[in-house]
Design a protein that fits this description.
- This protein is mainly alpha-helical.
- Helices cover 48% and strands 5% of the residues.
- The protein has a two-stranded antiparallel ribbon.
- A hairpin with a 5-residue loop joins strand 1 and strand 2.
Length: 153
C-alpha cells in the first residue's frame, strides 16, 4: 500500500481548525489548553501552529480571561489548501533552473504536476465539508447521530 506523507504541521493545523469549526457554535473562543485536550495535540507545538494560521488570517485570538481562538472566516470559506499553506508555506514546487543532468528536468516537471494536483485536491475540501463528514456517524449528547436528520425534524 502506498501512502502520501502530510507534514505534521499541516496535519496538526488541519485538526486544530477542524476542532474550532466543530465547536463554532459553542460559547466564545477556545483556549489553547482546551483545544490541545480535544485534539490530543501537544500544547506548545499547537501554540506555534495557531500563530501561523492566525497570521494567515484563518483564525483570530482573544486575550485574557475567556480568551482563545475562533475561526476568522466561515468554515465554508476555509479550504484544506489554505490551512496547509498557512502551516507549511505555499503548496508549490518551484525550481530556479532546470537540472538537465541524467534527465532530472523530466522529474522536476513531474514534481510540479504533483504539487499542482495536491493543491487542487486540497482546494476541493472546506472545513464545512469536513465538519459534515466528522459528524456523520458520531452521536450527539442525546445519543442521536450527528449530521443525520430524522423524519420528525
Amino acid at each position: 500500500m502506498e501512502y502520501v506523507k502530510v507534514s505534521t504541521r499541516g496535519d496538526y493545523a488541519s485538526r486544530a481548525l477542524l476542532s474550532l469549526a466543530l465547536h463554532a457554535g459553542d460559547e466564545g473562543p477556545t483556549s489553547v489548553r482546551d483545544l490541545a485536550e480535544r485534539t490530543g495535540l501537544p500544547q506548545p507545538y499547537l501554540e506555534q501552529i495557531l500563530l501561523a494560521v492566525k497570521g494567515a488570517g484563518l483564525a483570530r485570538s482573544k486575550r485574557g480571561v475567556g480568551g482563545g481562538y475562533v475561526l476568522a472566516r466561515p468554515p465554508e470559506e476555509i479550504t484544506l489548501a489554505d490551512i496547509v499553506a498557512a502551516a507549511d508555506g505555499p503548496i508549490t514546487t518551484y525550481f530556479d533552473s532546470h537540472d538537465h543532468r541524467e534527465g532530472h528536468c523530466a522529474l522536476q516537471d513531474v514534481w510540479v504536476k504533483v504539487s499542482e494536483s495536491m493543491r487542487s485536491i486540497l482546494e476541493g475540501f472546506t472545513l464545512a465539508d469536513l465538519v459534515e463528514r466528522a459528524r456523520i456517524g458520531h452521536l450527539d449528547a442525546a445519543g442521536n447521530p450527528l449530521g443525520v436528520t430524522t423524519r420528525d425534524e
